[in-house]
Amino acid sequence: MKRLLTFLAILLTVNAWSQQRTISGVVTGKNNGAPLAGVYFCPHHPTDALDGFRRQCACRKPAPGMLLTAAHELSLDLAQSILFGDKCEDMQAAGAAGVRHRVLLGEDGRALPADRCAPGLVTACFASLREAVSSAALVPILGGSLHV
Does the pTM of the predicted model rise above 0.85? Predict the structure, then answer.
């Protein structure tokens, strides 16, 4: 129980911090760019969770439930959205939610992703979010650079 409460306290702190940040600000340290509209997480796990949270659910990736909830709450058009993630499960969830553009990022921001996702699941791969949003390859998708 103590681990869960510690995790929830950290999550609430990160959520409060993120409300004051922007996507570009997270990448560059500058507070400009698109605002972060929300932080979503799944507290469930099929085997490694407390009894009330130990279960299969629709919000744990690769299921699309968390993305569908965010889309509903934030009035997002997922077909016109882009998802950046660092695991194939992120790409699977995005595909199942109808996100057409899926970008796989490296886990440490220094190397290309180690994951090898199923063919057709990933739109592009980059070492970092900074590299992705400043790439000419994504300009047609992003509608222009974020100028990071």
Answer: no
Residue 41 has pLDDT above 90, yes or no: no
CA distances (Å), origin 17, targets 4, 28, 38:
20, 16, 11
**Amino acid identity for residue 40 in this structure:** Y
Question: Phi, psi (5° rounding) for residue 51?
Answer: -50, -45
pLDDT value at residue 99:
95
- Sequence ranges of the domains in the chain: 1-35, 40-142
Q: Select from 3.10.25.10, 3.50.30.10, 3.90.226.10, 3.40.50.1000 the CATH code of 40-142.
A: 3.40.50.1000
65-74 vs 88-97: helix crossing angle, rounded to 10:
50
Length of the chain, in residues: 148
**Residues 81 and 101 sit within 8 Å (Cβ to Cβ):** yes
Query: 67: exposed, middle or buried (C-beta count within 10 Å: 0-12, 13-18, 19+)?
Result: buried
pLDDT tens-digit map of 68-105: 999 999 999 999 999 999 999 999 999 999 999 999 99
